[in-house]
Write a structure and sequence with these properties.
- It is built from six helices and 16 strands.
- It is of the alpha/beta class.
- The relative contact order is 0.11.
């Protein structure tokens, strides 16, 4: 084979290989896009929305379930949890049948006292009660229990102060806020250095889109994920929430995931 032919052959092989590799990358990206999750960068924290208030957070080899509801089927394709966080006693946060159907031998549950009092006997590795204001270091991350409660007089019956927990996880120097059921309380507005925030906005139980946006604009997370936005009158207007944020502080990234499949 002449030198020129050899070069031409090598070029053809490389072109074919690159084409196949590119097609494979596109195929993999397409497959990934069909999995309804967000991978933050550079944090590499994987966020998998399950439904409404339920989600999975994963980082390195640690998996955290938040308010798992919907039966074992909703989690059948997911890794088993190392930790489960539960925010409140209501059925869209505490689902006893879902918990009882899970294998929890290697799972630590982190719950408010009101939730602990409603739990049946579970085969969990450990159940840890956290009250508003508590901070605990779990080695892989630390957790602070943030108050969650209502402010409007007509909504006080839904969430009294001290019963449920929002949470701030500090995970590899990333701070993740999970609001739970709350209005735009001072404790949320006073949060500092939040990288990722999950903020609720469903009426009549929590707060309006405008109140949620106002609070987010005050504590200024790097990213905010609207979640828990279905109420008795249907879905809250998360596009309006996003537009308020974008108009007043375009540096806050608003990310919409598919919480209601």
């Amino acid at each position: 084979m002449t030198h020129a032919k050899l070069i031409t052959s090598l070029f053809t092989v490389l072109l074919f290989t690159c084409k196949n590799s590119t097609e494979k990358v596109v195929e993999m990206a397409s497959e990934s896009a069909n999995k309804l999750y967000e991978t933050t960068k550079p944090e590499e924290i994987k966020i998998i929305p399950i439904a409404h208030a339920s989600m999975i957070l994963a980082h390195k080899d640690q998996v955290v379930y938040v308010d798992p509801v919907g039966g074992i089927e909703a989690f059948s394709e997911q890794e088993n949890p190392d930790y489960i966080l539960i925010t409140d006693i209501h059925g869209d946060h505490l689902d006893l049948s879902t918990l009882k159907s899970m294998v929890l031998d290697s799972t630590t549950l982190i719950v408010p006292r009101a939730v602990k009092e409603k739990l049946p006997k579970l085969s969990a590795k450990e159940i840890i009660v956290m009250n508003n204001g508590d901070i605990k270091d779990f080695g892989v991350f630390s957790i602070e229990a943030i108050p969650m409660y209502n402010l409007r007089p007509e909504a006080l019956k839904y969430h009294e102060k001290g019963r449920g927990n929002g949470y701030v996880l500090t995970w590899d120097e990333q701070r993740i806020y999970i609001s739970g059921d709350t209005e735009d309380i001072p404790e949320m507005r006073n949060l500092k250095n939040i990288d990722i925030a999950f903020v609720c906005m469903n009426l009549p139980y929590t707060m309006t889109v405008e109140s949620a946006a106002s609070a987010v604009l005050e504590f200024q997370p790097e990213k905010v994920y609207p979640y828990h936005y279905r109420g008795t009158d249907g879905m809250s207007d998360v596009e309006k929430f996003k537009s308020i944020i974008n108009k007043n502080n375009p540096n806050i990234e608003t990310v919409q995931l598919n919480w209601y499949k």
